Amino acid sequence: MDVRVERTRRALQQALFALAREHPLEDVTVADIVTRAGLNRSSFYQHYSDKETLLADALDAAAESAGADLPELTEPLAGPPQALFDYLAHLDENAEVYRRVLGPHGSAVVMARLRGRIESIVQEGITKADTPAFDGLPLDVVGAGIAGSALGVIEAWLARDPRPPVATAADWVWRVLLGPGGSWPARS
């Protein structure tokens, strides 16, 4: 990608992320975003068709810069991977933003992107684990179910007051991901 394009997108992403920390998303206008980014309105529309897509990109970039990208599961683990802790710590540090975008009046675009990423990771993890736990179920159905469960746990955790520590949330997410059996055994 062209350096200027990347710089403009990054400026817009950082501006919206900062504004979303300060105000409800519905109160933030394109004018607010471009003013904060030091750009003009046409720059916004050259790079983004709407505020929600920009927000989804901004949240991805913020998580990535915090070193909290969602983990890729390469092998069965005994406990939550460090990347899950890192991702939940990022959510915790930006809880107000995530409460707004993942809650009942949140962003459908952000939720769809996050759900898709989790589904992909789950599908890849199940395939690599070669587990019989989901025999007979379509992989996309399993991915959708587990992603929905994980997002539900994250939303419930973010909504709590006081919010439990990240380690507690990681344990909750991990236990829900593994289900009642407690593990995804590999085929023998």
Keyword list:
188 residues; mainly alpha; Arc Repressor Mutant, subunit A; 9 helices
Task: Describe the protein in words.
It is globular and about 55 Å long. By secondary structure, the protein is an all-alpha fold. The model has no long low-confidence stretch (mean pLDDT 86). It is built from nine helices and no strands. The chain has two domains: 47 residues, Homeodomain-like (Arc Repressor Mutant, subunit A, Orthogonal Bundle), CATH 1.10.10; 113 residues. The protein starts with a helix and ends in a 10-residue tail after the last helix. The longest helix is centred in the middle third of the chain and has 22 residues. Helix 1 packs across helix 2 and helix 4 packs across helix 7.
List the helices and strands and how they pair.
Blueprint (H helix, E strand, L loop, with lengths): L2 H20 L7 H8 L3 H7 L3 H15 L16 H12 L1 H8 L5 H22 L9 H21 L6 H13 L10
Helix pairs in contact: 1-2, 1-4, 4-7, 5-6, 5-9, 7-8, 8-9
